[in-house]
Amino acid sequence: MKHRLLLAALLLGLCLPIPASVLHAAERIIDSRQQLAFAEHLFNQGQYRRAAEEYIRYTFFFPGDPDLDRVRLKAAEAHLLAGDGGSALQVLRPLTEREPLDAAAVDAYLLTAECHLQRNDPNQAVLQLNNLILLTDDPSVKDRAHLRIGWIHIEQLDWQGGRRALARITEPGRQRHQVDRIVSALDTADHLPGKNPSLAGALSILPGAGQLYVGRYQDALSAFLVNGGLFWAAYESFDNDLNVLGGLLTVVGIGFYTGNIYSAISSAHKYNRAVEEGFVDHLKHQVIWGSGLDDAHRRHTAGNGLRVRWQIPF
Questions:
Q1: Are residues 183 and 154 located together in one domain of the fold?
Q2: Which pLDDT value is given to residue 229?
Q3: Which SUPFAM superfamilies does the entry mention (predicted)?
Q4: Phi first, then psi: what are they for 140, rounded to 5°?
Q5: Distance (Å, rounded) from C-alpha 218 to C-alpha 210?
Q6: Quick one: 186 and 229 in the same domain?
């Protein structure tokens, strides 16, 4: 009986008409514009990892599309903004190996440099930009590469390296990228207010004085109290014939005293580096970058690598 009911239900299902919506869904074809619009939507929403996946999906389904190079660049950019410079490099590699060099390859080289910067490898970033300079005959492209190399040196607090790279930019490029303004600001970098590490160490002969010199007031007070307390306790121990305890306290005190001197020297170096990094940040915000980057890069700066947004039109 059960088998007959099951057979009857199956026959009835086969006789019923299939809804048009189901047929329409089954016949739906992936549209390149819709696929790209979805990827762009995810990118604009800040869902960079998902956007990268959709851009890559686009390159698989539409390998002959004329916008394919732009889509690959957007996929690499999305990977970069998601913090995955390694995946971005894999996407960019076929573009950088292309001969002869075209506009997409140029952008790929520039993005490749940003990937290496994100991976804390500025030397490799500079190498890629120098390769681009050798491969291109376009003065404007050379200028963009020299400009980015200059900024990389500046970000590494290498003022002379930055000046040398900027000096290679052509006169039209100097005007376009405000190079003279950058160089003028770099002239002040050698005169930034700083602290002398040697003086900080010498002052630390009196515990806490070196930290006080570099403006670390709480550390200065702690160094003075700890070192003073240890040496006073050691003196009292020896005075009361507690020689073993006095010896132990003396050894510990010498360690803290040496640490107090090292801390003061280190604090002076950190102070100077903070001043120099603040100078670079101020310079970035004062100068409009002309190396293919837009103002949105400031919203994506994080850590040591520079995360950027590129304007890749469709």
A1: yes
A2: 86
A3: TPR-like (SSF48452)
A4: -65, -35
A5: 12
A6: no
